[in-house]
């Protein structure tokens, strides 16, 4: 589909706007509430929908702010908010599956069960990864995935040495394992997709912006490139029409879906454990997950903490019910390492180890009668070394894996051992 009913601004203006908004944007999430949304009228979270925008590689949430602000003024009443999502561990080269799991935690924290996902560049692949591989496992319905200049067919610029530095860039190279898997899953998927391509884009070419067989779902934006496309009035107005279309369909088909609260999740976990064969090797690790989940449910959790343990339990249930699903096991392992309550903190362990070694060195020098500084006493040096070593040890052990994270990782590893196809 070609859209040219709006006059497009010059490319340089759109690119300059993107760069300026990137520089002015912080790294925190942003929300744009719908003034037409009545939360009391739609108090049941199953009767509302939310929009999540996922930015691209090295981008920031604020570069979409002008679009979100314009869209929020006349959103359909059942859409509560537009969320501009930010992610942790920027610059550490995390893969797309890990980023998609962070998105899952954010959606669970907001208690949204019906979502529309808008992804720019890499963000479209993250959105598709969540929609195709995670959403159904945690009871979330994805009503639409919108990709804006997203390399569903891979990018020619995803090459070494960039792929050595970032797993997410490696995931976007042509014919990567992740892209091929998403293409295969999409063949049988019922999730609707829509795509935008900038005709002058050299980062993501026109032939790579959609899933196989979806060429008729592309909106081509003339006279724009990868950076300037977010300033396109065609983009903004077409997204507005997509949101209205999906909202009307939502009212007709999906309003009364079942919502699982924390007690329901624990009941589902207990039922899943009871359904396991008596001699199953997964029974004991699953019971350990239930024990730690019950502790989390009885504590005074913040919404973020509650979303964290509930998502971990959802993923654990999926492994228990589908022990031969290697994708379910892989996501549970990712969750255990990076997101579940009690997951290890690499930075805490690193700083703790450095402080411990420095403290031991100071203490050893003091015992040997070698002053660490010119004017300090040996006794003071030994006391400082002891305190530094003790503090470092405490920080190191605080960063180790524990509680629910350790329990779900044990379950994942045991399931992996039993899975001949892993």
Structural commentary:
- The chain is α/β, with parallel strands linked by helices.
- The chain folds into three domains: 2-253, Alpha/Beta hydrolase fold, catalytic domain (Rossmann fold, 3-Layer(aba) Sandwich), CATH 3.40.50.1820; 268-341 and 409-418, no CATH class; 346-398.
- It has 15 helices and eight strands.
- It has helices at 11-24, 65-72, 96-109, 122-133, 162-165, 167-171, 177-187, 233-253, 262-274, 283-298, 303-321, 326-338, 346-367, 378-398, 403-418; strands at residues 2-3, 30-33, 49-54, 79-85, 114-120, 141-148, 193-198, 218-221.
- Helix 13 (346-367) packs antiparallel against helix 14 (378-398).
- The longest helix has 22 residues, at 346-367.
- It is globular and about 80 Å long.
Present the secondary structure layout.
Blueprint (H helix, E strand, L loop, with lengths): L1 E2 L7 H14 L5 E4 L15 E6 L10 H8 L6 E7 L10 H14 L4 E7 L1 H12 L7 E8 L13 H4 L1 H5 L5 H11 L5 E6 L19 E4 L11 H21 L8 H13 L8 H16 L4 H19 L4 H13 L7 H22 L10 H21 L4 H16 L4
Parallel strand pairs: 1-8, 3-4, 3-5, 5-6, 6-7, 7-8
Antiparallel strand pairs: 2-4
In N-to-C order, the SSE pattern is EHEEHEHEHEHHHEEHHHHHHHH
β-strand percent reads: 5-15%
CATH superfamily of the largest domain: Alpha/Beta hydrolase fold, catalytic domain
Shape: globular
Overall structural domain count: 3
């Amino acid at each position: 589909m070609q859209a040219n009913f709006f006059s497009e601004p010059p490319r340089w203006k759109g690119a300059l706007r993107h760069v300026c908004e990137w520089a002015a944007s912080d790294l925190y999430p942003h929300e744009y509430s719908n003034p037409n949304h009545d939360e009391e009228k739609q108090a049941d979270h199953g009767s509302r929908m939310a929009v999540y925008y996922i930015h691209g590689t090295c981008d920031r949430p604020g570069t979409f702010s002008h679009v979100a602000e314009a869209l929020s003024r006349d959103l359909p009443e059942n859409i509560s908010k537009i969320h501009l999502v930010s992610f942790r561990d920027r610059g550490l080269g995390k893969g797309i599956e890990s980023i998609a799991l962070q998105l899952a935690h954010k959606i669970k924290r907001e208690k949204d069960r019906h979502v529309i996902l808008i992804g720019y560049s890499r963000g479209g692949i993250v959105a598709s990864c969540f929609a195709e591989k995670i959403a159904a496992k945690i009871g979330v319905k994805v009503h639409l995935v919108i990709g804006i200049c997203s390399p569903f067919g891979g990018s020619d610029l995803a090459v070494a040495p960039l792929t050595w530095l970032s797993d997410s860039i490696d995931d976007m190279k042509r014919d990567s394992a992740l892209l091929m898997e998403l293409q295969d899953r999409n063949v049988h998927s019922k999730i609707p997709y829509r795509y935008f391509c900038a005709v002058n884009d050299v980062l993501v070419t026109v032939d790579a912006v959609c899933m196989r067989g979806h060429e008729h779902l592309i909106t081509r934006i003339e006279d724009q490139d990868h950076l300037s496309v977010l300033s396109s009035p065609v983009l903004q107005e077409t997204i507005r029409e997509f949101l209205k279309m999906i909202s009307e369909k939502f009212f007709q088909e999906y309003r009364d879906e079942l919502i699982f609260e924390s007690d329901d999740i624990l009941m589902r976990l207990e039922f899943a454990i009871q359904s396991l064969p008596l001699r199953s090797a997964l029974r004991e690790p699953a019971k350990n997950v239930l024990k730690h989940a019950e502790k989390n449910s009885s504590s005074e959790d913040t919404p973020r903490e509650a979303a964290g343990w509930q998502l971990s339990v959802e993923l654990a249930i999926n492994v228990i019910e589908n022990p031969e699903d290697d994708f379910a096991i892989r996501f549970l392992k990712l969750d255990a390492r990076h997101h579940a309550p009690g997951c290890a903190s690499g930075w805490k362990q690193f700083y703790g180890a450095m402080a411990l070694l420095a403290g031991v060195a100071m203490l050893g020098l003091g015992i040997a009668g070698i002053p660490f500084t010119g004017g300090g006493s040996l006794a003071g040096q030994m006391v400082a070394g002891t305190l530094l070593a003790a503090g470092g040890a405490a920080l190191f052990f605080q960063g180790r894996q524990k509680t629910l994270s350790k329990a779900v990782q044990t379950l994942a590893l045991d399931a992996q051992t039993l899975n001949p196809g892993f």
